[in-house]
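for the record, two folds in this file. i put them one after another cuz i was lazy. first one right below, seq on top, structure tokens after. the second one comes after a little note so u can tell where it starts
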Amino acid sequence: MSDTGPGADAGPDFDAMTRDIAEVPAVEVITTVAVHLMSAAAVKLGLAEDGAAHKDLDEARKLITALAGLVTAGAAEVGTYHAAPLRDGLKSLQLAFREASEHPDEPGKGPGEAYTGPVFG
């Protein structure tokens, strides 16, 4: 038997594989983006397996700052239930950045601290 019939080369049905973005609640979009930023920052901080190979503090700083802006601006919109773990994750990344830096920023000068205020361990 051959696969030369109608639709054989149509490829995957992406509409069936994904949800329509209109159906996704804003809270879910915001938290998903935040988790992606957290994951990327953790990798750039060298916290992933084989971490040293991916460590790039300049990139980590950008990701953490973007995350801080999103978490700070979105906290009122997503509510305390969702915002609290995002804030905790952000603070952990900010502290990890300070630890990973050869010359740590002063409190209040680290990535995202313009949005969150100084972060202390």
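(here's the note) second protein begins now
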Amino acid sequence: MFSHSALNLSKFDQMPEKCPVCGFRYEIELGFYWGAMYMSYGLSVVIVFLVGITLYFLANDPPTWVYLTTVATVVILFTPLLFRYARVMMLYFFGSVSFDPKYKQS
């Protein structure tokens, strides 16, 4: 679904116009992926919560600056993956798209 690896930080967000296998247009309508920002936000909240709970129990409730630094670092490191998963979820939930591994182009 994406043109480049998530590790390529300058191009991790680039998508082809159409699927090379089935020809599906990824941008269903103009601005379709704006809703993915909310999904990405939700995923970020889950990460913040999990990192906070982990720090609380494993680091014995460190100072606030440790929480802030750790959470910010983890969210920034996971940004390319959050971006991609949010777009994929947007397609699956609202774009009526489903993956068919047995699909063969005729």
